[in-house]
Every structure is written in structure tokens, then in C-alpha cells.
Design brief:
The complex is a heterodimer of chains A (111) and B (114). Chain A is mostly beta strands and 111 residues long. Chain A contains no helices and 11 strands. In chain B, 0% of the residues lie in helices and 53% in strands. Classes of the chains: A mainly beta (111), B mainly beta (114).
Amino acid sequence: QKEVEQDPGPLSVPEGAIVSLNCTYSNSAFQYFMWYRQYSRKGPELLMYTYSSGNKEDGRFTAQVDKSSKYISLFIRDSQPSDSATYLCATRNTGFQKLVFGTGTRLLVSP
Amino acid sequence: DVKVTQSSRYLVKRTGEKVFLECVQDMDHENMFWYRQDPGLGLRLIYFSYDVKMKEKGDIPEGYSVSREKKERFSLILESASTNQTSMYLCASSPQRGGSDTQYFGPGTRLTVL
């Protein structure tokens, strides 16, 4: 079993839709949770970062962590074609910065 | 603005060749990482380094070695390239041990081994 599971998609939505991207993880020691966005032919870039459970909002993006069910989510409001990319969740426990990544979900937002 | 650069965007090599992938970061970061990214498998950590001349094995170090002689430069070496090492290779850096989880990635090198 992979430590972090993520549906590869693709997820296709119309412009303006609310998008929900999700990951599950197996290690209850994971404390730090991140979402990276990767455009085609580019390296990933950090989008959102949360520690432990709870919500974090940044503009149109909301990251949510539910440690009781080991479930992490990224919500995108008013999605735009420029949001079309692959979204990778990542996590780690305390200590050194070795991240465990999900396989990524490809999102396509059509005009 | 953090910049991580990789020596090549595309590389084609033959089986058995020795391959060097170079990564340079300009933000004085202590930590540097090498990943490979494959469809369905995601990002997998090959090696990382948290200081000059220090290296630690990641999850899939077999067939690879690394070198970090200077703080800004982290090299990945394929001693004898094989076809199963055809992949996208991504380098990343981050500041200080135990600090931010922001890993800054380079654009990647797509390596094809024939």
C-alpha cells in the first residue's frame, strides 16, 4: 500500500466550477501537509501548506486536513483555465524534510 | 526569486553510458534533493543532501550516486545508464534543516536511455 494515495484523474470541469482534489494517507505520524501545482513541462511549485488538522485559505484555494480520517483536500473556487495543471499532495512527519508525494491529479478546466 | 536550474531539459543517452545531471540553486539553501517522476508512480526520492559533502539515500538509490562539493551544486550520476532509468529527473532545494517545507524545484531533465 502506498503511503499517500491520490486519484490520477484527469478531472475535467467547466470554468467557474468548484474543484475538489483529495488524498488519503496511511501514516498517522504525518503532521505537515502540502499541495504542489505542476504545469506541463515544469517543476512542481508549492501552492498550500498546513500543519496538523484544520483549514487554510489563500485566495481561491482552501486546503483542508482531517487527521482523524487521514484525508487531505484542496478546494479551488471559481476555477480558471489557468488552473489546468497536475496537483500533487505531499506530507511528512516531524524531523527532516523528506516529503512523501501522491502521484498527482491532472485537472483540466475548460473555458 | 529562488531559482533552481538543471543542466539539460532533454537528454538522450545509450545503455551503459555514464550520465551526469547537474543542479544549481542560487538561494544559499542547505538542503538539496533529486527525484524521478514517472507516470502512475509520482515523485520518488533518489538522494538528498543537507550539507556540503553530505548525502543520504532516499527511497530508490540503486543505480545512482550523487556529489555535493559546493553548497549550490548537487549532481546526480548514473554510473551505467539502463533503459529503466528513462524518466523525468527533478532537482529541488529548500532552506535549513527542519525549516520550511517549501521545496523549490527545477524545470526537470527528461532523460531517455536507448
